[in-house]
Amino acid sequence: MAARISKTLMVASIGLLATVIVLNNLTDYDVNFQYIQHVLSMDTVLPSSQLTWRAITLPPLQHITYGVIMATEAAIAVLCLGGAGRLLQHLNSDRPTFNRAKHTAIYGLTLAFVFWFVGFMVIGGEWFTMWQSANWNGQQPAFRFIGCVGFVLIYLSLPDADLEA
């Protein structure tokens, strides 16, 4: 039972993180939009960079990108919180039933991992060379999210075992 409660709480924690991120992005839109704007426009990368042809400087496209980011974070929140709720419903179920109840949470955690890895490490970090910016580099926070989400995903994916044996 302890492992099931632990898994449920950890999934809920990732859902809570995503919820707070969405809330912050919505309630402080302009400040958080500046981050997206600088990364996409590549205006703070090294002056000698030959990669600035990739920049997206049109505000409507920047706002659309920010909207897609927020929608993805909201989907992560819904899937993880919903998945935690489903796990909670099946805390006292038999092993096969509890293990089948993990699907929604696994989808949410996988989306979170892919989002922060592909979105912030691959696209933001490498395609838009965010790593070159002293002020607008979000790779370290993204890496922390990836690590936490990856750990929870691995732990949750382990078969439910009887720790009382």
Please tag this protein with its features.
single chain, 165 residues, mainly alpha, 6 helices, elongated
Commentary on this structure:
Helix content is 73%, strand content 0%. It is an all-alpha fold. It has one domain (2-157). Helix 1 (2-27) packs antiparallel against helix 3. The longest helix has 31 residues, at 59-89. The two termini are 12 Å apart. The model has no long low-confidence stretch (mean pLDDT 93).
H and E string: HHHHHH
Beta-strand segment tally: 0
The structural domain count equals: 1
Q: What's the overall geometry? A: elongated
The percent range for strand residues is under 5%
Structural class label? mainly alpha
Largest sheet: none
* Backbone CA Rg: 19 Å
Mean pLDDT: 93
**Gap between N and C termini, in Å?**
12 Å
* Helicity range: over 70%
The number of helical runs is 6
Low-pLDDT sequence parts = none
